[in-house]
Design a protein that fits this description.
Shape: globular
CATH superfamily: P-loop containing nucleotide triphosphate hydrolases
Strand content: 15-25%
Largest sheet: 8 strands, parallel
Distance between the termini: 27 Å
CATH topology: Rossmann fold
Radius of gyration: 16 Å
Structural class: alpha/beta
Number of helices: 6
CATH architecture: 3-Layer(aba) Sandwich
Strand order of the largest sheet: 3-2-4-1-5-6-7-8
Length: 202
């Protein structure tokens, strides 16, 4: 499949967790500028101070780019990726600062002609979700918006890793997390299928 870029310059929005789950689901190599805590099956790391992506790491297929940096840094990296990735996914929290960074990145992606989707990630209340959705819809009326309720799944992945993900069992009381994982996979399929709309994974 074509390569994917996941990022937001506002930290704590869950880009690495989503990258981890997407790389496992679609069997993608992860390319990052910050070593993650999670045990990606295939991981390549380049310098976080680099303003450009090394040419040998520009892959048009079977890669997911999980990159960190300021708005300016990510826009520069996005310029490099625009010709090789098929989609830009921006996770965001519900606060005003996260939304501001999200809008800046979406506008830059649109200027490059790159398909982009937003995931309102780890929201805790319907009130916060609705407020963030309204703000984003007012500013970005044509950008698909998805959503993912707060879940302990990301924490389990950080501490227990791929072995847990591959062997998690209903008998251990983790059936709810498996249901959440199924819904996240469905969300990924919808995002990459360009179906748009707002999808809640609870």
């Amino acid at each position: 499949m074509k390569s994917i870029f996941i990022a937001n310059s506002k930290g704590g929005c869950g880009s690495t967790s989503l990258s981890y789950l997407m790389s496992a689901y679609y069997n993608l190599d992860c390319i990052t500028n910050t070593p993650p805590m999670m045990d990606f099956l295939s991981l390549t790391v380049f310098s976080s101070s680099a303003s450009r992506i090394p040419k040998n790491l520009l892959k048009s297929e079977n890669a997911i780019y999980d990159l960190r940096g300021s708005d300016v840094q990510l826009q520069s990296l996005l310029n490099d990726l625009a010709s090789v990735v098929s989609h830009f996914i921006i996770p965001t929290a519900t606060d005003a600062v996260s939304i501001c960074h999200t809008v800046n990145l979406v506008n830059h992606a649109h200027a490059l002609g790159l398909p982009v989707s937003i995931v309102i990630n780890n929201y805790r209340t319907e009130k916060n979700l609705n407020a963030a959705h309204i703000s984003l819809r007012d500013l970005l009326p044509h950008t698909p918006i998805f959503s993912l309720r707060y879940t302990t799944l990301f924490g389990r992945l950080t501490y227990d890793g791929r072995a847990w993900l591959e062997k998690v069992h209903h008998s251990k009381g983790e059936g709810r997390l498996l249901n959440t994982l199924d819904q996240i996979h469905e969300m990924f399929d919808q995002i990459l299928g360009h179906t748009g709309g707002c999808k809640n994974a609870k």
